[in-house]
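User: I'm writing a tutorial on reading structure tokens. Could you give me a worked example: one chain, its sequence, then its tokens, then a sentence or two explaining what the tokens reveal?
Assistant: Sure. Here is the example chain.
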Amino acid sequence: MMRSASALAVAGLFLLGCQCSKEPLPVKKAPAPSASVAAPEPPKEPATPSEEVTFETADKIPLSGTLYLAKEPTAPLVVLLHRYRGERIEWAPLAARLAEAPKRYTILNFDLRGHGKSKSSSGKKKLDWADMKPKDMPAFVEDAHAAIKYGLERSDGKAKGVVLVGSSLGAAFAARAASQEAKVVALAVVSPGAAIEGYDVYHPFADARLLPSFIAAAKEDNVAREPVSALTQMAKEHGTVKIYEGRGHGAFGLGQEGTQLFTDLVDWLMGVYDAGAVERTIIAKGADDKKKGQKR
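And here are its predicted structure tokens:
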């Protein structure tokens, strides 16, 4: 009996020793955050809002347009000129993309006199492109000047530069206005023609050739093929040239064919966003293709 009690006592001490010497279980740590988990993206800035506007030319012709006024007053101004016998809707896809682009422009997309919502009355006669003749073409350059003036006024004169973008015959008007406006810092011409409606593109572009330029057309566009080649030679290192498959003419035609035109234009516009003034000869307004001007 005594031997059994002793055995039990020894067994108890043995068990007690085992319990006392047992190490505590390790505490599980939370896994470290994975380095591959991307930080949440900042909220996207809302698109620049648009508004319908009306402004007058120097010869008192009312023009209608859509204005996207950038939040930053110093944002550059881009003015869009549609093709002859077209409307501002031709440039609507580009304006919509620019309104959401990383760098925001103030954008003015408007109808030339006698087109779209600018088919307004001048005195007793209603302006309509169907009634216009080649002799009336230089007046469209005044529309471009009026658009530039209005856009700059809406930015309180703080816009750091102006970019003109023209389609078809609108490209020639844009080039002439660019040669006459010291504030213009870049020029884009899409599907330019040598002399659509008798209005020459070569002299206007030659006078603006020192500006950064975007020159684009379809490969099978017979109207634009030779002018694009000539303008490319004039622009030299200042030009960005894009040739697309198909035969679509102007921003409307190229857009219908699903080319990269609008994407390429946005990319180019992002690249010239901070473009500064270029030292060049400024052609006198109203001189049209005459080589009169003054050094800046």
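What the tokens reveal: DSSP finds eight helices and 14 strands in the chain. Residues 80 and 109 are 5 Å apart (CA to CA).
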